[in-house]
Amino acid sequence: xxxxxxxxxxxxxxxxxxxxxxxxxxxxxxxxxxxxxxxxxxxxxxxxxxxxxxxxxxxxxxxxxxxxxxxxxxxxxxxxxxxxxxxxxxxxxxxxxxxxxxxxxxxxxxxxxxxxxxxxxxxxxxxxxxxxxxxxxxxxxxxxxxxxxxxxxxxxxxxxx
Length: 161
What we know:
43% helix; five-stranded mixed β-sheet
């Protein structure tokens, strides 16, 4: 399971006016409506990464990036057996997150390459997301690339859906 995607940076004026794309909205539904624990943890970790780098760029505050470097890149999502987390549902989270990420990068004027994978056994697994983010793509700022990689472990009720 998994896929690869990439996004060349380009201005998308319509996307910023209309908000998230339908595909990106699907990820937000998994977070907010379905309360999928892996989706929630993924969005939380992405938000921490974006906040630290936005503060670095916009306010010249490097403390967030320093704290980010100290954060573990592996963590557990809070899951319970009765929640219905399956490897297939986590694969759906990974696919939806890549669409969300593509939309978010476009709205920020960033670019990047990213992929994900899902692996597991009958009772647990993990979602691995790797992204190489180019924050200076539209501003012709060299050396403004950062790697974001996380592995979110979860307990599963079954190997597949």
